[in-house]
Design brief:
mainly beta
């Protein structure tokens, strides 16, 4: 089995609890229709958030601090940047249409054909490599990863969080990542008297990078990612004051400018929104095969999963499946509704098991 797996929800769980994953789009079946809504078009309450940043307890390479499922892929948070891995959403839908029967020969042919992926890295140029990262708003349950035959690469008791912050990524500059209204956001928090000019981002491994109507368009071999025109603001005497802000793209390096200036004596928040506009649906292939209850009414779900692993290189690449899957077991407290019902998830697999 492949050494690539992360938290997923089985079909049995979805029908039982009616939760959502991969953003505001219903799972488990991935869809190929583009998401055309604007970032504010879908309102999601705090309880409807699905994005979880899972801490690294040894299940991923040591440079990874947290990882999170995103539409049709995954992002890995590292010391000085974010590594995105995206899968072709059309191929995902064709490989396993969960809601339709598929004959064995067709399924094997699609499996053998492999899947198109694309990885790129967003690097904070000149950032402190030892910046402290911290998870906030812990979610329910823990994750255990027993993948492969090397216990040194296992991870157990991993917690997940709704928000992650980088503290002093630059002197006087923090960065926070979280989900809001179904979209991934990252805030750049600039302390009073600190220049935001030091914040510069390089995009490595992308197919194209351009500014269109103030938005940053990131082209990959499997689709387009949009970082929307940034919003900036300050608070003065308890009142929120908007600050004109725009992207500046120079030789592939992104920075921020403030054409009307701002009050350098007050904290400044720069607030971009990332929209995976050509991606939707479940980020993983997963199948629930069994479900049962114990004497206390807890539910146990078991099945197989194939998910996005850490990429060895940037740019476009293919992955093959060859029928290799990992096993997953999840326990739920049926007396609690929503994501809080999950008590633990355990993943078993590896290439030689």
């Amino acid at each position: 089995m492949r050494l690539t797996t992360i938290l997923f929800y089985f079909t049995a769980y979805w029908s039982f609890l009616g939760l959502f994953t991969g953003g505001p789009v219903s799972a488990p079946a991935p869809r190929v229709n583009p998401v055309s809504a604007s970032p504010m078009a879908v309102l999601a309450s705090e309880d409807e958030r699905s994005l979880e940043f899972v801490e690294n307890r040894g299940q991923w390479p040591q440079q990874v601090r947290f990882a999170a499922q995103i539409p049709s892929g995954k992002m890995f948070l590292e010391a000085t940047g974010f590594r995105y891995v995206l899968r072709d959403p059309a191929q995902l839908a064709q490989r396993h249409p969960h809601d339709q029967p598929e004959n064995t020969s067709t399924s094997k042919a699609k499996t053998a054909a492999g899947l198109q992926n694309h990885a790129y890295f967003v690097s904070f140029i000149g950032a402190r490599p030892n910046a402290f990262t911290q998870g906030h708003q812990v979610t329910s349950g823990v994750r255990n990863y027993y993948l492969g035959n090397d216990p040194q690469k296992w991870g157990s008791g991993a917690k997940a969080f709704r928000k992650v912050t980088y503290q002093d990524l630059y002197p006087g500059v923090d960065v926070a990542l979280y989900e809001k209204v179904g979209q991934l956001k990252y805030d750049v928090l600039v302390a009073p008297g600190v220049s935001p000019d030091q914040v510069k981002l390089a995009y490595k491994g992308v197919s194209g990078l351009s500014l269109q109507s103030g938005n940053l368009k990131i082209e990959t071999s499997v689709g387009t990612v949009t970082e929307h025109r940034p919003v900036a603001f300050q608070y003065q005497n308890g009142q929120k004051q908007m600050v004109a802000c725009q992207y500046v793209l120079t030789d592939g390096v992104l920075s921020f400018s403030f054409p009307q200036g701002y009050n350098a004596a007050l904290p400044l928040v720069i607030d971009p929104v990332i929209e995976f506009s050509t991606f939707s649906g479940s980020t993983a292939d997963n199948w629930g095969y069994t479900a049962t209850f114990d004497s206390e009414g807890n539910m146990y779900s078991g099945g197989i999963v194939d998910d996005v692993g850490y990429p060895v290189s940037l740019g476009a690449f293919m992955t093959s499946f060859n029928g290799n899957w990992d096993i997953a077991l999840i326990k739920y407290n049926t007396k609690v509704k929503g994501p809080a019902s999950r008590l633990y998830a355990t993943y078993l697999g590896g290439q030689e098991t």
